[in-house]
Amino acid sequence: MKTFPPCCVLGSLLAALAALPTAAAEPASLEEARAQYWKTPHDPAAINALALRLLEAGDAAGARLLLYRAVRIAPDRVDILANLARLEAGSRAVGAMPGDAAGLPDGAQPDPALDPPPLWPARR
Question: What is the C-alpha to C-alpha distance for residues 22 and 6, in angstroms, rounded to an integer?
Fold first, then answer.
């Protein structure tokens, strides 16, 4: 069995990582969001981006439909759940609302009692 020097292995690994797809920038227009959606129709980020652009264009029904689809594909995406909750509550500021990804308004703090426990005990 042939062994390779560490530098060759590292170079191959870096080349493979560079070839991986990266997160796309948020589309600036409705047309760009539609194009991205049709390239990757099962990507929750593309669906969410198109829903936000549709809402900006005044199509709340289309945005709602897409957000429900995105939630079905990725039920763990907090940003999509928050956008859908804001839209269902009647807000037109979905995705552009200040606050964190969990949908908290500015200045609101999450309940510390709900924080997960530490993974390891504190060092002494």
Answer: 26
